[in-house]
Design a protein that fits this description.
Layout lengths: L7 H8 L57 H4 L10 H15 L9 H22 L1 H11 L14 H16 L3 H27 L3 H25 L3
Helix pairs in contact: 3-4, 4-5, 5-8, 6-8, 7-8
Pathway: Cofactor biosynthesis; iron-sulfur cluster biosynthesis
Pfam family, one: HscB_4_cys
InterPro entries: HscB, HscB_4_cys, HscB_C_sf, HscB_oligo_C, J_dom_sf
């Protein structure tokens, strides 16, 4: 996808006055965390402040700068720090950033910029994957608020819910037909949608303990979804 485009970087610079990063996404309007006190450019020694909103390149020599360690996934993807995310615009932002920082565009640049581009690209990939799905997005948002869910925790999960999970797992283990698998998959999908709507309301109300409880349940259903995928793979 990215190979054979070593001359793409100058064209990206030429697009900036009116191109894709010269405008903000309409639904994602969080300010950049890069400010006027940005460190000096490693290449020219000038102030390494941001060009427009993204702060990837030195405004003097246009050398790629190291990633900003204070920038969270929401800021990097230019989105509000919220559970509600427009995934279509998130994907568009991901594609924009990869056109700027993907290592294939830096094959003719300095080794320092090559290294920085790999780090930027990895961060962009991680941010995109984290914010794309409701469960990982919710867990990350909780973490930003200082709340984490340990692996294997039964936090606020009542016995009735655990019985429901066990029942679904038993049906999945016994399922022998495609129709039976689809029925289980439909039930799990509906449950996840219901829980996603509930956790969205919890975040809107800043009820992080409630969000933690719901996300714990979503994790159980996510595990079942993985089992369904594995069972669908022909041996």
């Amino acid at each position: 996808m990215w190979g054979g485009r070593t001359g793409a970087l100058p064209r990206v610079w030429g697009l900036w006055p009116t191109g894709v990063l010269g405008r903000r996404q309409r639904s994602c309007n969080a300010p950049s965390l890069a400010g006027s006190n940005s460190p000096q450019c490693w290449n020219c020694g000038g102030p390494g402040g941001p060009i427009r909103v993204d702060g990837f390149f030195c405004p003097q020599c246009r050398a790629l700068q190291p990633p900003d360690p204070t920038r969270d996934h929401f800021s990097l993807m230019d989105c509000n720090r919220s559970f509600r995310v427009d995934t279509a615009k998130l994907q568009h932002r991901y594609q924009q950033l990869q056109r700027l920082v993907h290592p294939d565009f830096f094959s003719q640049r300095s080794q320092t910029e090559k290294d920085f581009s790999k780090k930027h690209s990895t961060l962009v990939n991680d941010a995109y994957k984290t914010l794309l799905t409701p469960l990982s997005r919710g867990l990350y948002l909780l973490k930003l608020h200082g709340v984490e869910i340990s692996e294997g925790t039964d936090y606020e999960v009542d016995g009735q819910f655990l019985m429901e999970i066990m029942d679904i797992n038993e049906k999945l283990a016994e399922a022998q037909s495609e129709a039976a698998m689809e029925e289980i998959e439909s039930v799990v999908r509906d449950k996840q949608k219901e829980l996603t709507d509930s956790v969205s309301r919890a975040f809107e109300q800043d009820d992080f303990e409630k969000a933690k409880e719901i996300l714990t349940k979503m994790r159980y259903f996510s595990n079942i979804e993985e089992k369904i995928k594995l069972k669908k793979i022909p041996l």
